């Protein structure tokens, strides 16, 4: 890693799959730009793999493991991140998930539990982490940024297997 990069000295949390896919790419990207990064993922192996890529390239990163569906974990994970980072400048939430936790269903078959899972994995966890980050920003008196990344898959229906049922 070289000096004079855009995010030198910045402190960033990447949560919601920081150890895989878009989250891993974002964590790597902000580290390459000079930020210290906390990678949060439900999988210890994925979080550690993401951090290993960053540290092997000379960056600074910490892996934390947590389940964003658990309301108590947002505060804990942000607090642990801030303690390691020495403050917080940015939170990046990588929104999305469902099929890792349950199978896709036709709308007529979606239970309240399935619906609540979708909302937790795509909206509620973002709110909880943003709220915790804003509290840190206010306490620091320095402001900060929150970036929420979505997926194009949210714009695509999975109806191909159920089209005939609807006609």
Tell me about this structure.
This protein is α/β, with parallel strands linked by helices. Helices cover 44% and strands 16% of the residues. It has 5 helices and 5 strands. Strands 3-2-1-4-5 form a 5-stranded parallel sheet, sandwiched between helices. α1 links the parallel β1 (11-15) and β2 (36-41). The chain is globular, with a radius of gyration of 17 Å. It starts with 10 loop residues before the first strand and ends with a helix.
What sequence of helices (H) and strands (E) makes up the elements? EHEHEHEHEH
Give the overall silhouette.
globular
Q: For the CA atoms, what is the radius of gyration? A: 17 Å
Helix content: 40-55%
Instruction: Specify the number of helices.
Output: 5
- Number of DSSP E strands: 5
Overall structural class, as computed from helix and strand content, comes to alpha/beta
Largest sheet: 5 strands, parallel
Mean pLDDT: 85
Distance between the termini: 57 Å
Strand residue percentage: 15-25%
Weakly predicted, low-confidence segments: 162-167
Strand order of the largest sheet: 3-2-1-4-5
Descriptors:
167 residues; alpha/beta; five-stranded parallel β-sheet; 44% helix; 16% strand; globular; disordered C terminus
Question: SSE layout and pairings?
Answer:
Elements lengths: L10 E5 L5 H12 L3 E6 L2 H13 L4 E5 L5 H15 L4 E5 L17 H29 L4 E5 L13 H4 L1
Parallel strand pairs: 1-2, 1-4, 2-3, 4-5
Helix pairs in contact: 1-2, 3-4
Could you write a compact summary of the structure shown?
This protein has five helices and five strands. The chain has 167 residues and is of the alpha/beta class.
């Amino acid at each position: 890693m070289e000096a004079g990069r855009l995010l030198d000295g910045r402190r960033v949390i990447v949560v919601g799959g920081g150890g895989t896919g878009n989250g891993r790419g974002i964590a790597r990207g902000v580290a390459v730009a000079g930020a210290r990064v906390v990678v949060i993922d439900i999988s210890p192996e994925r979080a550690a793999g993401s951090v290993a890529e960053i540290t092997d390239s000379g960056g600074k990163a910490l892996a934390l493991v947590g389940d964003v569906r658990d309301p108590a974990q947002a505060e804990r994970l942000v607090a642990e991140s801030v303690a390691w980072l020495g403050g917080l400048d940015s939170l990046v939430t990588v929104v999305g998930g469902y099929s890792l936790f349950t199978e896709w269903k036709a709308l007529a078959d979606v239970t309240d539990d399935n619906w609540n899972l979708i909302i937790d994995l795509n909206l509620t966890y973002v709110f909880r982490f943003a709220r915790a980050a804003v509290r840190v920003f206010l306490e620091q008196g320095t402001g900060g940024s929150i970036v929420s990344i979505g997926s194009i898959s949210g714009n695509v229906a999975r109806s191909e297997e159920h089209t005939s049922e609807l006609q």
